[in-house]
Amino acid sequence: MRLVLTRRSEKPFASVEELEAVFADFANALDRLDRARYALVADIRAAPGRNDPVFEPVMQRLAPRWFGGFRKVGVLVKNTVGMLQGQRYARKDGISRLTSNDEAEMFRYLTQED
């Protein structure tokens, strides 16, 4: 199926610096893949919700390293608030992705041929 699954834990980051350090290692691991051959699932349902002024700009800067270059990207969220936030991020960074709280819809989207 050529799917890469990334799953966010429920553990909050203690600081922006911790988020950036963990994310650098994470993104470096993804960089070892031939991203264009894979679809990416970003399961963030367990993540603590954040939209504070410190967190938002950091995520806007980091998202392209997470989502960029994959054949397709799907973001699994917990609820409608998460869907709206994910769609807002997509509009800002320009990376096409499906944001949904429906696993079946997500996997249909990611596995269908273009």
Set out the fold topology.
Elements: E1 3-7, H1 16-31, E2 39-43, H2 55-67, E3 72-76, H3 80-93, E4 98-100, H4 103-111
Parallel strand pairs: 1-2, 2-3, 3-4
Helix pairs in contact: 1-2
Individual helix count: 4
Arrangement of strands in the largest sheet: 1-2-3-4
**H/E element string?**
EHEHEHEH
Number of strands: 4
Poorly predicted runs are: none
Helix share, percent: 40-55%
Distance separating the two termini = 14 Å
Shape: globular
Structural class: alpha/beta
Strand coverage percent: 15-25%
Largest sheet: 4 strands, parallel
- Rg, please? 14 Å
Q: Kindly state the mean pLDDT as a whole number?
A: 91
Describe the fold and architecture.
Helices cover 46% and strands 16% of the residues. By secondary structure, it is of the alpha/beta class.
Keywords:
114 residues, alpha/beta
A few lines on this structure:
This protein has 114 residues and is α/β, with parallel strands linked by helices. It has four helices and four strands, in the order βαβαβαβα.
